[in-house]
Specification:
- 46% of the residues lie in helices and 8% in strands.
- It is mainly α and 104 residues long.
- The chain has a single domain, classed as Winged helix-like DNA-binding domain superfamily/Winged helix DNA-binding domain (Arc Repressor Mutant, subunit A, Orthogonal Bundle), CATH 1.10.10.10.
- The strands form 2 sheets. Strands 1-2 form a two-stranded parallel sheet.
- The protein is globular, with a radius of gyration of 13 Å.
- Keywords: DNA damage.
C-alpha cells in the first residue's frame, strides 16, 4: 500500500470510529466493514494501533467479535473503565453484543 492509501484507510476508519455513540461498541470487523473494508478486522486493529496515545477518538468502543476486550493489561483495565463509565456492563468478562452493539 502506498502512503496515500494508508492515510486514506486510516481516515476512513477514524470517521467511522468518531461516529460510534457513547454506550455502544462495535467489533473490529464491524469497524472495518463500515469503513468500506469488508473482512478487514485485522486492518482495523492495525490502524487503531497507529492512533496517538492522547487521541480523543473513542478507540475504547472497539472490541473483539466474542464481546471481549483484546488489549493486554493495563490497557484492558483502562478500556473496561471507560466503557463502564458509559454504562456498558460486563458479565463474566464479556459485553452483551445484542444489547450494546451499534448497528447504524
Amino acid at each position: 500500500m502506498s502512503e496515500e492509501e494508508i492515510n486514506n484507510t486510516l481516515a476512513r476508519i477514524c470517521r467511522v470510529l468518531a461516529s460510534i455513540p457513547s454506550g455502544h461498541v462495535v467489533t473490529y470487523g464491524d469497524l472495518a466493514a463500515m469503513a468500506g473494508f469488508p473482512k478487514g478486522a485485522r486492518l482495523a486493529g492495525q490502524q487503531l494501533r497507529k492512533l496517538p496515545k492522547d487521541t480523543k477518538l473513542p478507540w475504547h468502543r472497539v472490541i473483539n467479535a466474542q464481546g471481549r476486550l483484546s488489549l493486554p493489561e493495563p490497557r484492558a483495565s483502562y478500556q473496561r473503565e471507560l466503557l463502564q463509565s458509559e454504562g456498558v456492563s460486563f458479565l463474566k468478562g464479556r459485553i452483551d453484543m445484542a444489547k450494546y452493539r451499534w448497528r447504524p
